[in-house]
Amino acid sequence: MVGTFDANTPQLKAAQKWVDAYGTRDLSEIGAVSSKDYVHQTLPKSMGLPEEGKEVYTKRLEGLLPSFTNFDVRIQRRVTALRLAD
């Protein structure tokens, strides 16, 4: 069974703002959609990179984002089907 969702929920509106901020590579918008206690974890964890707080992560993005001419961010909805045996 596939569930439906309301695109007008506060959570989905916040997610869309986040996607838009990264899609435009706008650091001020990225900062605005990130909470003050935001923590970024680079994956895979096996790379051994430390978690970064909002300020450190934003500073790193400041140096990285200008090198991207296109930064495509999408929300993908994944559905997992589970059927239990009788």
Contiguous helical run count: 3
On the 0-100 scale, what is the average pLDDT? Answer: 80
Q: How many individual β-strands? A: 2
Strand content: under 5%
Query: Percent helix among the residues?
Result: 25-40%
By CATH, the topology of the domain at 10-67 is Nuclear Transport Factor 2, Chain: A
SSE string: HHEEH
Uncertain runs with pLDDT below 50, 5 residues or more? none
Largest sheet, in brief, is: 2 strands, antiparallel
Shape: globular
Second rung of CATH, namely the architecture of the domain at 10-67: Roll
Determine the structural class based on helices, strands and strand pairing.
Answer: mainly alpha
Distance between the termini: 17 Å
Quick recap:
The chain has 86 residues and is mainly alpha-helical. Helices cover 38% and strands 5% of the residues.
What topology emerges from the helices and strands here?
Elements: H1 10-24, H2 27-33, E1 39-40, E2 52-53, H3 54-64
Antiparallel strand pairs: 1-2
Helix pairs in contact: 1-2
Structure overview:
By secondary structure, this protein is mostly helical. It has a domain of 58 residues: Nuclear Transport Factor 2, Chain: A (Roll), CATH 3.10.450.50. Helices cover 38% and strands 5% of the residues. It is built from 3 helices and 2 strands; from the N terminus they run ααββα. A two-stranded antiparallel sheet has the order 1-2. The longest helix is centred in the first third of the chain and has 15 residues.
